[in-house]
């Protein structure tokens, strides 16, 4: 149970009874993807507020969002490749 980083004994026993094993995927890229998604979401909200008030967008903000979106896409592709090797 400790090796799987589980703290709930009932959940551990149930999972082992059903599946017979627990796979604990530690993928640090997921934390970075979550951070990038939050960052992009905040930027998109700020741009939307600005567009609603002034009807224009900031080119650097849009370029930043596109760059981070490309990073997210590449990271997700790498995660899929890692999972396919399991």
- Rg, alpha carbons: 20 Å
Instruction: Note poorly predicted spans.
Output: none
Number of H- or I-type helical stretches: 3
User: Which class best fits the helix and strand makeup?
Assistant: mainly alpha
Span of the ends, CA to CA: 21 Å
**Average of pLDDT:** 81
Shape: elongated
What is the percentage of strand-forming residues? under 5%
Element string (H = helix, E = strand): HHH
Helix content: over 70%
Major sheet characteristics: none
Compute the number of strand runs.
0
List keywords for this structure.
86 residues; mainly alpha; 3 helices
What does this structure look like?
The chain has 86 residues and is mainly α. The protein is built from three helices and no strands. It has helices at 9-19, 28-54, 59-84. α2 (28-54) runs antiparallel to α3 (59-84). The two termini are 21 Å apart. 0% of the residues are buried. The model has no long low-confidence stretch (mean pLDDT 81).
Task: Give the arrangement of secondary structure elements.
Layout: H1 9-19, H2 28-54, H3 59-84
Please provide a brief summary of the model.
This protein is mainly α. It is 74% helix and 0% strand. Helix 2 (28-54) packs antiparallel against helix 3.
């Amino acid at each position: 149970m400790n090796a799987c980083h589980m703290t709930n004994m009932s959940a551990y026993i149930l999972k082992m009874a059903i599946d017979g094993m627990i796979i604990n995927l530690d993928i640090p890229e997921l934390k970075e993807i979550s951070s990038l998604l939050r960052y992009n979401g905040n930027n998109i909200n700020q741009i939307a507020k600005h567009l609603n008030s002034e009807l224009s967008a900031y080119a650097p903000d849009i370029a930043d969002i596109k760059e981070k979106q490309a990073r997210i896409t590449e990271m997700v592709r790498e995660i899929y490749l890692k999972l396919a090797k399991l």
